[in-house]
């Protein structure tokens, strides 16, 4: 014979159940159906009589003696299960930072949704997921504690695409500037100008210097630094790098770079935005300068380099 039992979940209003005699564990099944708690494991559901402090045991019999009213409902609580997992960290270009993860702890899907919203993400993907079709996890219940995940968000993909495009543009500019300087040196020195094949100097397989281009003309080595907007800071850095270059040649294990030892090192500052004043200051410091002029690049060299005669050639 069925009877009515009133229950109350947390601070919600009381609701009634029509149940048959059975165990507390069976009652939990009925409560989950009535309160839409289907995803909650029975072991996480705690039942207590009204104002009682003792939990009902799972095998305790529930019968008509439990009958109550809306003002004296059976109390329902659920234990909080925290899920802790790791999420990949990214740099400003949307690239994963190798070995860098942030730890997050969440209790429910609401926490998880707020987390995804803060990153404008659609979900997380397991880092070891090497399937062609990526599985995007949109619910906390599918997150495995302690595992590592990456963020699935359109803006990260967008940043990566933009960075790749920007890097391609930079590489095109570097190659064009390198050719302009090579042509300039060809005409001025009437010597063979070699484009040095390496752009990264290593020691014990670790990169110690990187360059936008290197040219060799006789006993002179021209080291290029290309920036979209050339600044005082970039000029100072280039001058410092010329001294570092000579020092690093002594410690590099690259035989290709070793052949540049004992030469004269000249800095070449290349900028799309390069003010007249800064170009003049740069040449006074012994640097070659390169900047756009019309649809080509113009190269100017300091008087000292050109035997006290300032040369200005439009290539």
Q: Could you describe the largest sheet, including whether it forms a barrel?
A: 7 strands, mixed
Number of beta strands: 19
How many angstroms separate the termini?
101 Å
CATH topology descriptor of the largest domain: Trna Endonuclease, Chain: A, domain 1
Q: Provide a count of the helices.
A: 6
Spatial sequence of strands, sheet with the most strands: 11-14-15-16-17-18-19
CATH class of the largest domain: Alpha Beta
Overall, the morphology is rod-shaped
Which structural class should the secondary elements be placed in?
Answer: alpha+beta
Low-confidence stretches: 162-166, 308-315
| Radius of gyration computed on alpha carbons | 35 Å
Order of helices and strands: EEEHEEEEEHEEHEEEEEHHEHEEE
Structure commentary:
This protein is 28% helix and 33% strand. Mean pLDDT is 86; it is low at 162-166 and 308-315. It contains 6 helices and 19 strands. Strands 11-14-15-16-17-18-19 form a 7-stranded mixed β-sheet, with helices on both faces. Strands 2-1-6-4 form a 4-stranded mixed β-sheet, with helices on one face. Strands 8-7-10-9 form a 4-stranded mixed β-sheet. The radius of gyration is 35 Å and the shape is rod-shaped. A hairpin with a 2-residue loop joins strand 14 and strand 15. With 315 residues, the chain is an alpha+beta fold. It has helices spanning 24-35, 109-118, 154-189, 232-249, 255-258, 276-284; strands at 3-9, 15-19, 22-23, 45-48, 61-62, 74-78, 83-90, 96-106, 123-126, 148-152, 193-195, 200-203, 206-210, 214-217, 220-229, 264-273, 288-293, 296-301, 311-314. The chain folds into 3 domains: 3-78, Ubiquitin-like (UB roll) (Roll), CATH 3.10.20.90; 83-152, Ubiquitin-like (UB roll) (Roll), CATH 3.10.20; 166-314, Trna Endonuclease, Chain: A, domain 1, CATH 3.40.1350. This is 11210_t:CDS:1.
């Amino acid at each position: 014979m069925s009877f009515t039992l009133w229950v109350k979940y947390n601070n919600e209003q009381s609701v009634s159940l029509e149940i048959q005699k059975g165990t507390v564990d069976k009652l939990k099944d009925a409560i989950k159906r009535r309160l839409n708690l289907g995803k909650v494991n029975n072991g996480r559901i705690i039942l207590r009589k009204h104002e009682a402090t003792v939990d009902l045991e799972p095998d305790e019999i529930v019968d008509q003696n439990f009958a109550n009213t809306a003002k004296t409902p059976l109390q329902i609580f659920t234990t909080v299960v925290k899920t802790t997992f790791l999420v990949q960290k990214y740099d400003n270009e949307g690239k994963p930072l190798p070995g860098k993860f942030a730890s997050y702890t969440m209790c429910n899907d609401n926490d998880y949704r707020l987390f995804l919203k803060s990153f404008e993400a659609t979900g997380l993907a397991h880092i070891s997921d090497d399937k062609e079709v990526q599985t995007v996890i949109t619910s906390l219940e599918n997150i495995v504690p302690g595992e590592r995940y990456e963020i699935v968000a359109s803006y990260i993909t967008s940043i990566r695409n933009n960075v790749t495009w920007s890097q391609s543009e930079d590489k095109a500019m570097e190659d064009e500037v390198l050719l302009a300087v090579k042509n300039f040196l060809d005409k001025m020195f009437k010597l063979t100008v070699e484009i040095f094949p390496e752009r990264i100097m290593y020691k014990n397989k670790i990169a110690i210097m990187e360059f936008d281009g290197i040219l060799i003309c006789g006993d002179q080595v021209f080291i290029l630094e290309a920036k979209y907007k050339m600044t005082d800071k970039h000029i100072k850095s280039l001058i410092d790098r010329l001294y570092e270059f000579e020092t690093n040649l002594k410690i590099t294990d690259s035989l290709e770079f070793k052949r540049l030892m004992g030469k004269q090192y000249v800095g070449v500052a290349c900028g799309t935005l390069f003010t007249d004043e800064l170009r003049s200051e740069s040449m006074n410091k012994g640097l070659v300068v390169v900047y756009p002029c019309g649809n080509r690049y113009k190269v100017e060299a300091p008087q000292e380099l050109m035997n006290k005669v300032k040369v200005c050639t439009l290539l």
